[in-house]
């Protein structure tokens, strides 16, 4: 990929990304006609973390912060981490199997939004 939105890139972007269907969560969007944030400074929280011996909790936070910093480099958005029980614009969870959103993970699915 070249970083240019050419036909090859568009073709790759149209490939299925995971087993989750891209459909809005009607419980969240019901009654909402605006599906974007009204501001550019957003908060996020890590509600639950992965329990791996190979990756510490601190390292997981660092990886997530690096990802949001990368988004900030290429967009007008800024991101601030808040406590794991605070209200936030974005909630991150590391979960597996049936995790309560109606789209359970299987052995081929590692993430969805």
Automatic annotation (TrEMBL):
Ca(2+) 2 binds at residue 89. Zn(2+) 2 binds at residue 18. GO terms for molecular function: metalloendopeptidase activity; zinc ion binding. Keywords: Calcium, Hydrolase, Metal-binding, Protease, Zinc. Zn(2+) 1 binds at residues 99, 101, 112. The lineage of its organism: Eukaryota, Metazoa, Spiralia, Gnathifera, Rotifera. This is Peptidase M10 metallopeptidase domain-containing protein. Its cofactor is Zn(2+); Ca(2+).
């Amino acid at each position: 990929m070249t970083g240019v939105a050419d036909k090859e890139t568009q073709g790759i972007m149209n490939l299925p990304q995971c087993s989750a269907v891209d459909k809005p969560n009607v419980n969240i969007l019901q009654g909402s006609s605006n599906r974007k944030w009204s501001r550019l400074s957003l908060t996020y929280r890590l509600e639950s973390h992965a329990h791996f011996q190979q990756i510490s909790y601190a390292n997981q936070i660092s990886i997530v912060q690096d990802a949001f910093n990368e988004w900030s480099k290429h967009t007008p958005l800024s991101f601030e981490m808040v406590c794991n029980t605070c209200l936030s614009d974005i909630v991150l969870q590391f979960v597996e199997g049936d995790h309560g959103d109606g789209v359970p993970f299987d052995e081929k699915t590692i993430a969805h939004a």
